[in-house]
């Protein structure tokens, strides 16, 4: 009997080793397992690609939703455009009383009239001049970083507004207030 137990033990050991090395699988079974693993990896890659695309679209929609003009900017721009379209260029005190205090004030700024008229307006007497040096510029920010703002230019001697300009910097530009789809 001892020989029979020993033979059974050797047979079980050989069978276990054979299974560990894949001896028990046929070529077709191995190919089927490999195909199944490949299909699973392809499906997982496809799901990951869809997830990535979804995140990108979601991020773009979220960014577009954030990229709107503030109500204060829309109101200020509308008042300014109406005022200058009637050829009225008020004094700084009138502007501050109606629009509030500017976020930033700079002295001795040169107004580039060619640039300002592309996204704003310039008083008639300065339109034929390329630059007006020595201006005072008030900035009304549309965003916390100051990347979008209404720039108002004033004559430093008279205090009269002589130019309004919509300013944007950075990668996400949304256009002049009231002129784009970002003002819903």
Characterise this structure.
With 184 residues, the chain is α+β, with helices and mostly antiparallel strands. The protein has 2 domains: 2-66; 71-183, no CATH class. The chain has 5 helices and 5 strands.
Mean pLDDT: 82
* Helical content (DSSP H or I, runs of 4+): 40-55%
The profile of the biggest β sheet is: 5 strands, antiparallel
SSE pattern, N- to C-terminal:
HHHHEHEEEE
Q: Given the C-alpha coordinates, what overall shape results? A: rod-shaped
N- and C-termini, Cα separation: 92 Å
Class from helix and strand fractions: alpha+beta
Low-pLDDT parts are none
Number of strands: 5
Biggest sheet strand order reads 1-3-4-5-2
Strand percentage = 15-25%
What is shown here, in short?
48% of the residues lie in helices and 21% in strands.
Key structural traits:
single chain; 184 residues; alpha+beta; 2 domains; 5-stranded antiparallel sheet; 21% strand
């Amino acid at each position: 009997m001892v020989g029979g137990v020993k033979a059974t033990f050797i047979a079980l050991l050989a069978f276990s080793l054979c299974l560990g090395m894949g001896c028990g699988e046929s070529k077709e079974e191995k190919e089927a397992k490999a195909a199944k693993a490949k299909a699973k990896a392809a499906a997982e890659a496809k799901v990951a690609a869809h997830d990535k695309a979804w995140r990108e679209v979601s991020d773009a929609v979220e960014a577009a939703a954030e990229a709107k003009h503030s109500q204060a900017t829309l109101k200020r721009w509308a008042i300014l455009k109406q005022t200058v379209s009637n050829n009225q260029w008020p004094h700084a005190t009138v502007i501050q009383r109606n629009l509030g205090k500017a976020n930033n004030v700079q002295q001795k700024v040169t107004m580039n009239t060619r640039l300002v008229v592309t996204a704003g307006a310039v008083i008639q007497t300065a339109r034929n001049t390329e630059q007006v040096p020595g201006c005072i510029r008030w900035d009304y920010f549309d965003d916390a970083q100051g990347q979008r703002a209404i720039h108002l230019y004033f004559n430093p001697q008279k205090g009269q507004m002589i130019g309004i300009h919509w300013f944007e910097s950075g990668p996400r530009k949304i256009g002049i207030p009231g002129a784009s789809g970002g003002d819903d």
